[in-house]
Amino acid sequence: MCLATVQKESDNTVILKMVSRIDVDGEKVILRDIMGETKTITGRILMVDLAN
What we know:
By secondary structure, this protein is an all-beta fold. The chain has no helices and four strands. The chain has one domain.
């Protein structure tokens, strides 16, 4: 299983750690971690790197 840490591009602030699912609905990005916590943010995905 690959887990991600989602960061804000402008200042690298961590939005959510141990993210197991990411859904995109227009300009909304819905993040869910392995414990089931969900955060919805407005934005877009610029890059995904699951190797680092």
